């Protein structure tokens, strides 16, 4: 209870405090060792927790047959095959007995759980190879290792193909699996023989056994013969050879039994004078002398020799087995007389190719057909066949003509085709330029790279059309042909040169005209396509490039540069070119030149050249026969060249109504193609003989 003063009866009151030693200092705190240990453990625990919270679990698997060891250069915590390791890049080494060590980089990402697969490469295995027979070639995967036996071969682990080969044995091959890891393995190979035993006897014995033509044994014998198709034979003096084809299977023996040899035929080498006599043996024709005959041994046989103009020879011969004999028979001639009258008297007379004298003479010749040839340089030879008659004198007259006279006697200076075309005869031998050079010098203005200088000679006489083939003439071959028009200017009128024809069409026109006149076609055709030519044929053709160049350029003993001469441009109308009136068609003209025709003109509208040929230098350019090539420099002289049998492009010669430049108007200008053009036509030619 409290009284009225407000102080409780049981109140607590402080008492005074006095230190025991008022002058002594107050005691301070001292560190205990346990305190520091706990502090260190706490810090380690914090670091461990930080590592565990940031580390990632990585499973490292190693493919190997032996125990492996994995070392990681960096802070990590292993748990069996797994490790705890923070994200980053670390050097890693994996090793195992029998394997090459593996050094690599371990890349740890931010993923919580990761897996790494490591594959170790086994060390090579040690292989021993034993073979029967020894010395067999050893090939591993196609690469030769040497000859068996082979020991301690270091072979890469894994599958391989092993092959052994030895002469006269079947090849041995196996697929093997090399374990590697320095482990030793052994392979034993037994090669089987590639032959079979062949037994053979003969009557009489002692014959040489031949295998594939090589002596192998003497009968009776057992010989080893390689597998496959083989020939086994027997040879014994005085007996006919024997042989048989066998199909030999390795390891399968065969017995050919006893072979009865037959006595060899006698061999007679028979010749006669003269040779070429017909031979019969017991009435059977055998051939002509010289001849080798086989006669049955020990039997008399009749031999007869006969030859036209000679008396028959007959005799009987007997040869022993294997005997070789020679017989030369001189046949007696049955003669007839030939009296030859020869002019000129210095001409040489040949009988069957053999010279017998000069001029007129009387010959006694055997009574069979002979070939009498009379020849003299510069004259056409004359050949006749005659059969003399015994007791009857015959007379033959030979009067030779010069070669030119003989040729010209058969030829006419002009011919006309079934279409009315005129072709003139040209005889290059009459020209001082029968040998000339095609092309142009590099120094010539306007000269193009394909105008290589090329020496040629013309020897064969030929006909050449005086004008270009017209639309009217070509339409008799192809009735619906249309040469077209240019800017309203027709190219299709009857007497204009045909245009828009390919080289093939031009060549086929030539063959069509040849067949129409009963001539052998010059060009070879297969399924309507020209594939080549026959240079011996006399049918119509396109002129060769050499003939065209000679006809256009040869003027006396010089070669023309332009149709009108040597200077450019022409001063008067000489050919149909791109003149002043053609500008709106061609876009290019020969300034100051007017020929009166915008496009092609009717053929023969201008004067002919010195050979009587029209439009060689203008109007339309012309297909020629030759396949287009650029001749090689310094080529050898060619005579009557015709070029290749076929090709992709063909030569075009001469200028046309659409050309005007200096280079194009030169007579050596060369172009090429195969398809038709509105400024290209052609003219025809043929050989005279």
TrEMBL record:
Residues 1-25 are annotated as: Disordered. The chain crosses the membrane at residues 36-55. Residues 126-191, 195-255, 266-332, 336-402 form the PEGA domain. Keywords: Membrane, Transmembrane, Transmembrane helix. It comes from the Bacteria. It holds the Pfam family FGE-sulfatase. Residues 435-686 form the Sulfatase-modifying factor enzyme-like domain. This is PEGA domain-containing protein. It comes from Parahaliea aestuarii.
